């Protein structure tokens, strides 16, 4: 990530003697060193690689009418933003835009206030989460972002120069489950798109929105996993409509995979129009993937956040259930793997040697 790191600070959440979540804030922002830049890059990379993220926006609500005589400028303006987090973030961005001398202090104050807000949310929802809460505001490709992630640590052992063993703790980025990223530029320029917040949806079926999205006052608008599933299904339908042979279809799927990887690594949304330029088109009818997708019963959106899990769907057929687990490369369909929908039968030719050996041994014992 060739990004310009503006501010970086970390606070800690612990469980105190009363078994309550307590915040231990850092006194100031960290100096942006090469080590901090590397850590920010690693956090961003881990976030991009997480499958099944959600996309949304700050919660809006109609103004209250409990006190009709109250002179409230926000109420007169119509819709108000009910996210206190959003208001504090907006105030920080205003100070940053003014380019005052205390911008770093403003970011630190915002991060401390947000940390305290998270502690209150945890208490209100009865959730216990501890670790290091990281706030990073950075610029990438002329776009301003804010990343907030709650990370835990993991022990590892190092061998020193004197060949002694030393136990150390490091941030466990691989198990990052609580993180949210704000596209501050889109929020400022195109808030009506309502896609400026992206977040990890959680582990083992639990949604982060249970408390983490309540903490920032956001709601999910787009199910990225479902969007990507629809995209892959549309790609399959389009390639089938082009009457391509299996090898050509495989080559074009590889091109789609390459495009997915580029966008995932860059942390960018993929464009259906850009993808159409990488897929075959019919010049006589002016039909291409973009036009084909708009003719579907549910048209694809023009911009879609890529889900890393979709890469597997492009490369393989897989499924499990009832004690059976099957996975094979798509290019084998019709070559070594044959499916008969009428009899719900899958026929495999040329079994893997290790599986064949197990089956032969079992057969000899029966």
UniProtKB/TrEMBL annotation:
<protein>
    <submittedName>
        <fullName>Nucleoid-associated protein YejK</fullName>
    </submittedName>
</protein>
<feature type="region of interest" description="Disordered">
    <location>
        <begin position="58"/>
        <end position="79"/>
    </location>
</feature>
<dbReference type="InterPro" id="IPR007358">
    <property type="entry name" value="Nucleoid_associated_NdpA"/>
</dbReference>
<dbReference type="GO" id="GO:0043590">
    <property type="term" value="C:bacterial nucleoid"/>
</dbReference>
<dbReference type="Pfam" id="PF04245">
    <property type="entry name" value="NA37"/>
</dbReference>
<comment type="similarity">
    <text>Belongs to the YejK family.</text>
</comment>
<dbReference type="GO" id="GO:0003727">
    <property type="term" value="F:single-stranded RNA binding"/>
</dbReference>
<keyword id="KW-0963">Cytoplasm</keyword>
<dbReference type="GO" id="GO:0003690">
    <property type="term" value="F:double-stranded DNA binding"/>
</dbReference>
